[in-house]
Design brief:
With about 130 residues, this protein is mainly alpha-helical. The chain is built from three helices and no strands. It has two domains: about 60 residues; about 70 residues.
Length: about 130
């Protein structure tokens, strides 16, 4: 075995290890920094209350209403991803599971586009009435 082959073997061992470690570390860091921001906001509010400053209540997050256009957008994205998976499965000659996943995503996209058509027709009928 030459020196180049052992380096490739070492890299081949480290790639899955790094992938697993990063997969676990990214959410841990995300939750850690989210927690730190919440603690900092709480400390600032407590200091303001101790000094007698009147604070407005924290605004609640407002969810935007779902519109038919959201269904169209999600449907188009699903169609694109599904068709891309199917084409990749055909070109790369990978397993049937890959093709099945692409078909599922494609049919979800078709269902969302159909729902968009139904919802827009329903809205136009309500506007006419």
């Amino acid at each position: 075995m030459g020196g180049g082959e052992s380096a490739v073997a070492i890299i081949g061992v480290f790639i899955p290890i790094v992938a697993i470690v990063m997969t676990m570390l990214i959410p841990i860091f995300a939750f850690y920094f989210w927690y730190r921001v919440r603690v900092q906001k709480s400390k600032e509010r407590m200091l303001a209350i101790e000094k007698g400053v009147e604070l407005p209540p924290e605004p609640l997050p407002v969810a935007k209403p779902v519109t038919p256009l959201d269904s169209l957008r999600k449907g188009c994205v699903s169609l694109g991803v599904g068709v891309a998976l199917i084409i990749f499965a055909l070109v790369a000659n990978v397993s049937e599971w890959f093709m099945g996943g692409g078909l599922i995503v494609t049919f979800v996209g078709v269902a969302l586009v159909i729902w968009y058509r139904i919802a827009t027709k329903k809205e136009t009928k309500q506007e006419e009435a």
